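so my prof wants the structure for this chain in the tokens format not the other one, which i didnt know existed until like an hour ago. anyway here's the sequence
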Amino acid sequence: MTDIINLRTARKQAARDKQRGQANENAARHARSKASRALEKAEAAKARAHLDAHKRTP
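here's what i got, hopefully its the right format
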């Protein structure tokens, strides 16, 4: 004998699973690692410091 299921609940769960799958796919495609964000931040700080060091003061 089969189990009785609530179709509304099953439909909602299927929608949640689909959204979760899409979110995981987007995260894998577009997300950056913590190390790459830190590297980019450090490079920007170094470039800013380099430009500030070359400013002329009146």
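also thought this was worth mentioning. Helices lie at 7-30, 34-53.
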